[in-house]
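Morning!

This is the sequence you dropped in the shared folder:
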Amino acid sequence: MGSFSIWHWLVVLLIVALVFGTKKLRNMGTDLGGAVKGFKDGMKEANDNADKESADAAPTQRVASGETIDVQAKEKSGSSSQ
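The structure's back. Tokens below.
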């Protein structure tokens, strides 16, 4: 009762082929392959657009080697009462 053997899977495949027919299974496989390809293309396009937008939005700031940038930190003013 553990795992199925190869013979179990062959019988299941034969029954599925008899019920649905090979032409319908081939069409379903083609549709599924097209859907996966469309999904991959969409994800690639989304990543390309995100990379392009982040490159456009990022400020171009060049710092010469050895140059120090001084930053002044400010503390939050006001007290919170809880």
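Headline: The first helix runs from residue 6 to 20.

More detail when I'm at my desk.
O.
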